[in-house]
Amino acid sequence: MNLPLLGADDIEALGPTGAVDALESALSGGLDPETAPARHHLTVPGGELLIMPASTQQVTGVKIAGVAPDNPARGLPRITGSYLLLDAATLLPLALLDGAALTTLRTPAVSALAIRHLTGPVVRHLVLFGTGPQAYGHLAAVLAERQVERVTVVGRNPDRAEALAEHARRIGVDARAGQGHGAGDVTTADLVLCCTTSATPLFDGSLVPDGATVVAVGSHTPDAREVDTALVARSAVVVESRAAALAEAGDLLIPLAEGAFGAEGIDGNLAELVTGRNLREKLSDFEGPRFFKSVGMGWEDLAVAAAVHRNPAP
Fold first, then answer.
1. CA 314, CA 301: separation in Å to the nearest integer?
2. Least crowded by CB within 10 Å, which of 31, 208, 215, 292?
3. Strand pairing partners for 51?
4. Pairing of the two strands 122-123 and 126-129
5. How far apart are CA 305 and CA 14, in angstroms?
């Protein structure tokens, strides 16, 4: 049999909205992130190998992703990999997908699904930390979900920050590169996106306004975090799944170890956010910031990969 190869063009054709809808459909259909298979980690010479299986009644799949920290200096992508999609009943392969392109679409879609239920229709000021593929992907995903009036891009490399701001301006958004480390910018933000490789907090969480939403996606290890204890302690917290967050999310595990946060402080997971009116009402009435932490899960890749397979590029 000839196995279809679905590359970046096929994956990008689904678009941010298609990916967000696929994730929401999976959760609305009863998928429980708490029972989803855990990610497997393997240290290898080039960095880290991630093995992420998942299954539904219709399809099964596994992503093998590489995280190669030295690749950008070589002019190569930091995230690599492939995704094998199979028929659930027969376990016969259906397609092989570009794993890096799938991740680039899936991760912003997870954030955008949370944003769909955590923010109003208009974002007055988006502060975007990061200048890599995930930053570009998150900008596209948020613009597909919300009207954004102003964007500030904060990055360690001023030229790359300005390049992303220029990209935003070309697609019609008022955007500029932030000055310094972005501390002053978060004081007027109503949405903050953290899409970096930083292992230490990017800003002072006490500066984030009440009512703002903060999304962090850059880290998936217990000893790394993009936001500080101050933000976590004063926020309503939503995660993909409690089990995954309490195993991998340093943004929560470090405050927990400090005694400033407890597992009971997690207000809900993504399925509860999508399906639960009571949780959404509770969060809308909450006076402090709302914090969504994503570490990436295999069921998300499967939902998006299946949607790409159903809707091939023209």
1. 22
2. 31
3. 40, 64
4. unpaired
5. 10
